Amino acid sequence: MALPTSARTIEHLEWLAAGIEEQGGTASVWVASPTTGTTTARLIEQAQAAIDDEYRAVMRAAVAPGLTSAERRRLVRRLRAELRRIGSRDYFGADAGPTARARVDELASIGEVVTA
């Protein structure tokens, strides 16, 4: 697995390594760079594909006919939380993200009364 080098990513990994060491294990954080542009592109494509799969799962869940209003609100809350979790790992702007967010927004708007 490869993650982009950012202060946030490094901090999280160092926190994880410290937790492992507190439990008696050993851990180190290494920063590496791809040797070619082709490798970089391949890693980005793999990361985007994995995140796109997660966004598509949210889109499938957002198609839920026959829900009561309360069930729909709970589902929307759960899906929005899932979108936040996915988004926190979407380092390269996966293509399916905007569509997944739009689908959840559409689900949320079902039954809303629009006033002018």
How would you portray this structure in words?
This protein is mainly alpha-helical. The protein folds into two domains: about 1-30, no CATH class; about 40-110, no CATH class. It is about 65% helix and about 0% strand. The protein contains four helices and no strands. Helix 2 (about 35-60) packs antiparallel against helix 3. It starts with 6 loop residues before the first helix and ends in a 7-residue tail after the last helix. About 10% of the residues are buried. The model has no long low-confidence stretch (mean pLDDT about 90).
Per-chain topology:
Blueprint: H1 7-22, H2 37-61, H3 69-87, H4 97-109
pLDDT < 50 runs, ≥5 residues: none
Q: Portion of residues in helices? A: 55-70%
- What number is the mean pLDDT? 91
Q: Tell me the series of helices and strands, N- to C-terminal.
A: HHHH
Could you say which overall geometry the principal axes of the C-alpha atoms support?
flat
Percentage of residues in DSSP E strands: under 5%
Count the helices. How many?
4
Q: Gyration radius, to the nearest Å? A: 19 Å
Largest sheet: none
